[in-house]
Amino acid sequence: MLSYTCKTAIKAIIYLSSKSESGEKTSLKEISTQINASEHTIGKTLQLLAKHKIINSLKGPTGGFYLTPEQQNQPILKIILVIEGDAIFKECGLGLSKCSELHPCPIHNEYKVIREQTEKLFREKKVKDLCDPVTHGLAFIID
Predict the structure, then answer these.
(1) Residue 58: CB partners within 8 Å, gap ≥ 6?
(2) What is the pTM of this model?
(3) 85-97 burial by CB neighbour count: b if 16+ within 10 A, else e?
(4) Among 2, 28, 32, 100, which is 20 to 30 Å from 65 by CA?
(5) Separate counts of helices (H) and strands (E) for the chain
(6) How does pLDDT run across 88-124, given as a tens digit for each residue?
(7) What one-character-per-residue DSSP string does 37-98 give?
(8) CA distance 108 to 91
């Protein structure tokens, strides 16, 4: 359902959140190494997220990427909307352009429920909610 870029963005923000809790700024290289993603993908993604104020960045020798406490309390949905838009919560499960209540695909009703539950999950889960289990070794963001 989520694109590779969006999944990578979420993992990067979880990692940034864990570092930001102690006031650290994190380099692009460190993030890409720690979440096992290309620097190019991470760089473009983090620039976009910084532009939309999802994360912060500072240039220079003491610079890097970081999150404020307020940004750690933002819903994961904000990240998804910046990267993907809201189409993933509206599109047909089979990719039909005219799927609707009046013209449903074979999985319309079941898929609609899944889409709604997924959107609710990402609306309710905050960045810090995903960071805490990773920080405590109860969940992982890399294989």
Answers:
(1) 25, 64, 66
(2) 0.91
(3) eeebbeebbeeee
(4) 2
(5) 7, 2
(6) 999 999 999 999 999 999 999 999 999 999 999 999 9
(7) --HHHHHHHHHHHHHTTSSEEE-STT-EEE--HHHHTSBHHHHHHHHT-SGGGTS-TT--TT
(8) 10
